[in-house]
Amino acid sequence: MTSAPFTEKTSEKISAETTEQKSGQTTAQLIKLLIAIIPNYEESFWHVDTELFGAIAEFDSMTLVTLIGEIEESFDISLDDDDISAENFASVASLTELVLERS
Amino acid sequence: MISTHVEFYQGAKGPLFRIIRSPEQVLAHLLFIAPLFEQANQTRHHITRSAINGYHQGLQTIVYDHYGTGDSGGELVEANLNLWQQDIQRQIEEIKANSAKAIYLSLPLSAVLLLSDEMLTLVDGLILLQPDFNGKRFVQQFKRLALAAKLTQADKKNSAEINAQQTIDIAGYTMQEDLLEQLAGQNIPQLTSFNVDCYWFEWLAKTDELSPGRLKQQQALANKTNKLIVQQVAAVKFWQATELQLSAEFLVQEQLAFSQLLSNAAEIS
């Protein structure tokens, strides 16, 4: 049968598209939260590669904890204390990854 | 000119700094309960706006700092939940002893963790601003500040060490660990049912859905009172923003709530 590999390939492709879509939605939602908390930047400033911790002056401990609270509420997930690391909050991309892992 | 009286009121343990705005004809009284720790600073500007708006509508407004905070006497390390609750109750009882007018409480964010059954029997209404009745979560978030500070400062403490301390120092606030334990134990199920007007302002964008956690809290409070009115505020969460924000939409909605409360109070009297 030749249809099986084709089906698997199609399924893989759909799965990859779904993951990409989910990642895009998560990033968009995170940016929405960031704009509300740090309103003094143009919307165009925010994108998946925007660096956060250490790169934005306003991104202090208070902002970080506020963001955690909003993320937990908005995505209905729980973050561990161990998740509070410079690596996870380095950029919108790393934060997206963290949220997807915990979802 | 706004008639403003500034005083040190004798609380249960020491003087409390109060700002009282009394209109010529007082139609009702509104006591503002400050939320806790950094939230007090984040909401101060808005509370002042609300107090002035209320004054213009005939409410005597009282804004004060909890014992050990702001301009009140004492140190935070001497404070505990019971003391803060006693201070609120004392003020309500004093108003009641001198006036037959309705008494309302304004409770933003974590201020609701100070609510007690005794208070609810003494007041005529509550105005809740994005209330967070989940004490455990509030304390968890507060303790996370210390962990987050580790990323920016040379603070070596990990979460186990933070939890093991007797006095705790987080974001410049030094307090007894007991205070956080007491706050963590606060939640809606602890309150008995009450029967006063209760306005709940929920900040939520028009296109967003209420999160399960917030919905659960609203439902839990609705089970405690049949007079709960939830109002959606589609505006920026001013207390979270890294720069000063004014929630004009909320202030307008709050003024309507003041009018409604005053109208209800007039009907009763």
Helix-strand blueprint:
The complex is a heterodimer of chains A (103) and B (269).
Chain A: H1 3-37, H2 61-75, H3 92-102
Helix pairs in contact in A: 1-2, 1-3
Chain B: E1 4-10, E2 15-21, E3 28-32, H1 38-56, E4 59-64, H2 81-98, E5 102-108, H3 117-122, E6 125-129, H4 135-152, H5 159-164, E7 167-170, E8 173-176, H6 177-184, E9 197-203, H7 212-222, E10 228-233, H8 248-268
Parallel strand pairs in B: 3-4, 3-5, 5-6, 6-9, 9-10
Antiparallel strand pairs in B: 1-2, 2-4, 7-8
Helix pairs in contact in B: 1-8, 4-6
If helices are DSSP runs of H or I spanning 4 or more residues, what is the number of helices of chain A? 3
| CATH top level class name of the largest domain in chain B | Alpha Beta
Q: How many domain modules of chain B? A: 2
Anisotropy-based shape of chain A: elongated
Taking all Cα atoms into account, the compactness measure Rg of chain A is 17 Å
- Given the C-alpha coordinates, what overall shape of chain B results? globular
**Rg over alpha carbons of chain B:** 18 Å
The N- to C-terminal Cα distance of chain A equals: 38 Å
Largest interface: A-B, 26 and 22 residues
- CATH topology descriptor of chain A: Non-ribosomal Peptide Synthetase Peptidyl Carrier Protein, Chain A
Structural class label of chain B: alpha/beta
**What portion of residues of chain B is helical?**
25-40%
Could you say what the CATH topology of the largest domain in chain B is called? Rossmann fold
Describe the structure.
- Chain A has one domain (26-102): Non-ribosomal Peptide Synthetase Peptidyl Carrier Protein, Chain A (Orthogonal Bundle), CATH 1.10.1200.10.
- Helices cover 59% and strands 0% of the residues of chain A.
- Chain A contains three helices and no strands.
- In chain A, helix 1 crosses helix 2 (61-75) and helix 1 (3-37) packs across helix 3 (92-102).
- In chain A, 26% of the residues are buried.
- Chain B is α/β, with parallel strands linked by helices and 269 residues long.
- Chain B has two domains: 4-133 and 194-268, Rossmann fold; 135-185, no CATH class.
- Chain B has helices at residues 38-56, 81-98, 117-122, 135-152, 159-164, 177-184, 212-222, 248-268; strands at residues 4-10, 15-21, 28-32, 59-64, 102-108, 125-129, 167-170, 173-176, 197-203, 228-233.
